[in-house]
């Protein structure tokens, strides 16, 4: 499926759901649009800087090392390495996604990038230590992380197919 076809499908589904939600509860939909606009206003000024940083970082990363460790031919070892890096990657999306762009430009394979972003979003050791353990306890956090550990490996393995 080409990018344009995928975009049309996703845009159609999102548009249809937006019309349905607006017809069902117009006041809630209006409130959600306002919140989304607020998020866009906070993210928009940061995005150009993050993309420039990703481009600079992509040029600084040694392509032969990146492609050797987490490139397309690295297999499940590359997926495992990317999962560990993603789990330990601190910060929010303004760091994680530019890092993924930089790694892609340096030769990382799609399966490793899927594993990296999946591990970053599901495991995120820094978020667990700062928020989850103090608020929900160590036992809950240990169970959640233990259940999430295989998922980046599965996602990366499937992306390699």
Task: Describe the structure in your own words.
There is one protein chain. The model has no long low-confidence stretch (mean pLDDT 90). Helix 5 runs parallel beside helix 7, helix 5 crosses helix 10 and helix 6 runs antiparallel to helix 7. The protein is an all-alpha fold and 161 residues long. The protein is 84% helix and 0% strand. The protein has one domain.
Structure, briefly:
The chain has helices spanning 3-24, 26-43, 47-60, 63-70, 75-88, 93-105, 110-122, 125-136, 138-148, 150-159.
Largest sheet: none
Task: Specify the structural class.
Answer: mainly alpha
Low-confidence stretches: none
Which range does the strand content fall in?
under 5%
User: In the residues, how many domains can be counted?
Assistant: 1
What is the helix fraction of residues, given as a range?
over 70%
Number of E-type strands: 0
Cα(first) to Cα(last) distance is 16 Å
The number of helices is: 10
Shape: globular
Please, what is the average pLDDT? 90
Gyration radius, to the nearest Å? 19 Å
Helix/strand order? HHHHHHHHHH
Describe this protein with a few key phrases.
84% helix; mainly alpha; 0% strand; 10 helices; globular
Topology:
Elements: H1 3-24, H2 26-43, H3 47-60, H4 63-70, H5 75-88, H6 93-105, H7 110-122, H8 125-136, H9 138-148, H10 150-159
Helix pairs in contact: 1-2, 3-6, 5-7, 5-10, 6-7, 7-10, 8-9
């Amino acid at each position: 499926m080409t990018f344009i076809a995928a975009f049309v499908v996703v845009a159609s589904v999102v548009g249809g759901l937006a019309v349905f939600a607006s017809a069902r509860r117009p006041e809630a939909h209006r409130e959600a649009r306002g919140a989304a606009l607020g998020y866009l206003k906070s993210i928009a000024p940061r995005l150009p800087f993050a993309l420039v940083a990703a481009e600079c970082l992509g040029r600084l990363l040694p392509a032969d090392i990146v492609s050797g460790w987490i490139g397309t031919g690295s297999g499940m070892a590359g997926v495992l390495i990317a999962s560990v890096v993603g789990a330990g990657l601190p910060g929010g999306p303004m760091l994680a996604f530019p890092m993924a762009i930089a790694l892609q430009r340096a030769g990382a394979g799609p399966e490793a990038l899927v594993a990296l972003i999946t591990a970053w979003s599901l495991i995120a050791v820094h978020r667990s230590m700062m928020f989850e353990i103090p608020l929900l306890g160590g036992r809950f956090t240990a169970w959640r992380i233990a259940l999430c550990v295989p998922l980046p490996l599965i996602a990366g393995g499937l992306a390699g197919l």
